[in-house]
Write a structure and sequence with these properties.
Blueprint (H helix, E strand, L loop, with lengths): L7 E2 L2 E2 L5 H4 L9 E2 L2 E2 L4 E4 L8 E4 L3 H5 L4 H10 L9 E12 L8 E6 L15 E7 L7 E7 L5 E6 L3 E10 L2 E2 L18 E3 L5 E3 L15
Antiparallel strand pairs: 1-2, 3-4, 5-8, 6-7, 7-12, 8-11, 9-10, 9-12, 12-13, 14-15
């Protein structure tokens, strides 16, 4: 198993409780080029496929505190309309904060992660598995939206997010197997953030348009 494998004590996944672990940029660590994650680890494009500039950082202390035990994470999934129970394990595989420098464009930002390039392998996940990207709706809000994505044959996933903000990639396991959650309701967390502005290098502020972006609970299609 990689460094992202879970340390378990009964049902509780202890990684969530460790500030050092959760805030250390799980995944792209050591794969930065000019302040960016490597192109193989993460590529960001607009809805038309044009590659766009971004910055990557760790999550804040306030963000971590909103998910610092597995019970809080389970509730976030339930609030997003997923059918969950106490026999499921929610395991963090990547954390970080994405900032599209000129704001998230209309239609959203499509994030493509190469999972092998962030240290995951066939012992962690495999093509066809469903994983889940949590995104905080506004800094420190404690409110998260959950997007499902299916792992491709090249061990990559693509998720269309409507805002800048903190991200946590999660796999859900039961009885030692990665599982796909049923979506029991059409509940959707309010996607409009309180403030989705970002500072350009020159100090000007640009505001992104909030996209009605999402994925299907099974396939991650848009």
């Amino acid at each position: 198993m990689t460094a992202f494998a879970a340390a378990e004590d009964g049902r509780t996944i202890k990684e969530w409780e460790s500030e050092d672990y959760m805030r250390r940029d799980i995944g792209p660590t050591g794969r930065f080029t000019n302040g960016h994650t490597s192109a193989d680890a993460l590529t960001v494009r607009d809805a038309s496929g044009r590659e766009i500039d971004y910055e990557w950082a760790g999550i804040s202390k306030g963000t971590w505190e909103s998910i610092k035990d597995e019970g809080k994470v389970q509730k976030i999934f339930a609030d997003n309309g997923f059918d969950v129970n106490d026999k499921m394990d929610f395991i963090p595989m990547l954390t970080g904060t994405i900032t599209v420098r000129n704001g998230v464009p209309e239609g959203g930002a499509v994030l493509t992660f190469g999972l092998k390039d962030i240290g995951l392998n066939s012992e962690d996940v495999k093509p066809g598995d469903t994983v889940y990207m949590m995104q905080e709706t506004a800094p420190g809000s404690g409110v998260w939206e959950v997007f499902a994505a299916e792992i491709g044959m090249n061990y990559d996933i693509a998720v269309n997010v409507p805002r800048n903000g903190a991200l946590v990639l999660v796999k859900v396991m039961s009885n030692g197997d990665v599982i796909t959650l049923d979506k029991t309701t059409n509940t959707v967390i309010d996607r409009k953030p309180a403030d989705n502005t970002t500072k350009t290098p020159g100090g000007q502020t640009s505001t992104s348009n909030t996209a009605s972006a999402g994925t299907s609970p099974k396939t991650g299609e848009f």
